[in-house]
């Protein structure tokens, strides 16, 4: 990432020791390492999201090709993409297919209300 050699790090450490002093230097090093760790995690999450988007775009392109081919005599790659898209669509719709938990079968919708306000 950065092309910093050993002697450059030693020079930075000496300057930091002179400027910050021996009391504040360890705290400053910890803060800088935390910031760098957070930046690496953020860069990793952005990279992962971009990879997912690229895979999704590839799947959509393959589905479009399959639709143009009439979903007949598809190459194994296209058939795999179509199957993957169908499975993911089913996974997304599965939570919504279940009936709501708040509705109990023994409670009728046309039952008279006992609340007499």
TrEMBL record:
Q: Name its cellular compartments.
A: Cell membrane; Membrane
Q: Which UniProt keywords apply?
A: Cell membrane, Membrane, Protein transport, Translocation, Transmembrane, Transmembrane helix, Transport
Q: Does the keyword Transmembrane apply?
A: yes
**Cross-referenced InterPro entries, in alphabetical order?**
TatA/B/E, TatB
Stretches with biased composition (Acidic residues): 107-117
Protein origin, superkingdom: Bacteria
Transmembrane keyword on record: yes
Identify the stretch(es) annotated as Disordered.
66-117
Transmembrane region(s) = 6-25
Report membrane topology: Single-pass membrane protein
Q: Which HAMAP family match?
A: TatB (MF_00237)
Q: What does the record note on quaternary structure?
A: The Tat system comprises two distinct complexes: a TatABC complex, containing multiple copies of TatA, TatB and TatC subunits, and a separate TatA complex, containing only TatA subunits. Substrates initially bind to the TatABC complex, which probably triggers association of the separate TatA complex to form the active translocon.
The family note in this entry says: Belongs to the TatB family.
- What is this protein for, i.e. what is its function? Part of the twin-arginine translocation (Tat) system that transports large folded proteins containing a characteristic twin-arginine motif in their signal peptide across membranes. Together with TatC, TatB is part of a receptor directly interacting with Tat signal peptides. TatB may form an oligomeric binding site that transiently accommodates folded Tat precursor proteins before their translocation.
Supply the name of the protein: Sec-independent protein translocase protein TatB
User: Which organism is this entry from?
Assistant: Salinivibrio sharmensis
């Amino acid at each position: 990432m950065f092309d910093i050699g050993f002697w450059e790090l030693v020079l930075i450490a000496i300057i930091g020791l002179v400027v910050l002093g021996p009391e504040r230097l360890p705290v400053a090093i910890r803060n800088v390492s935390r910031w760098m760790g957070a930046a690496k995690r953020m860069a990793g999450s952005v990279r992962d999201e971009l990879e997912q988007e690229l895979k999704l775009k590839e799947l959509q392109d393959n589905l479009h090709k399959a639709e143009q081919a009439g979903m007949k005599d598809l190459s194994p790659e296209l058939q795999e993409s179509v199957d993957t898209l169908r499975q993911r669509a089913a996974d997304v719709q599965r939570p919504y297919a279940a009936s709501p938990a708040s509705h109990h079968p023994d409670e009728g919708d046309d039952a008279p209300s006992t609340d007499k306000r």
